[in-house]
Design goal:
Shape: elongated
Strand content: under 5%
Largest sheet: 2 strands, antiparallel
Helix content: over 70%
Number of strands: 2
């Protein structure tokens, strides 16, 4: 189901924002647009537009104080992208790729890889870890 949700309602940019909100929510007590802008190196107006779009798609909620929270569907998408990012980075590092380059490449791959291919990589990495 999540792949259907992802395909129908998000694009790479939206996925990056959702993943960033998830990561920041693990580090900060609350997430605000300014935190996202600082993390991604974007201007606050660009982030505000993106947050408006994510809110319209019901991927986030924003309180009157400007605190941003992932909805259930937003969290599902963010966790899927984050899992892909982490596993793909790990896999590339295991292959000898520099960690910074691996993370950068994983960020590109995580948005386009099929569920089938990702699941196969995940299964392979689990077997290698045993």
């Amino acid at each position: 189901m999540i792949d259907e949700v992802k395909t129908m309602h998000t694009n790479e940019s939206a996925e990056n924002y959702l993943e960033t909100i998830l990561v920041l929510s693990k580090k900060l007590p609350v997430v605000r647009s300014v935190d996202i802008a600082n993390e991604l190196g974007f201007k606050k107006p660009s982030v505000s537009i993106a947050m408006k779009n994510l809110k319209e798609k019901n991927h986030i909620t924003v309180t009157d104080a400007g605190f941003i929270y992932l909805t259930e569907t937003g969290k599902e998408i963010a966790e899927m992208i984050y899992e892909r990012h982490e596993l793909l980075t790990k896999c590339l590092v295991m292959l000898g790729v520099d960690e910074a380059i691996a993370a950068e490449d994983a960020c590109k791959i995580e948005h386009v890889i099929s569920k089938e291919s990702f699941d196969a990589i995940k299964k392979h990495v689990k077997n290698v870890d045993k």
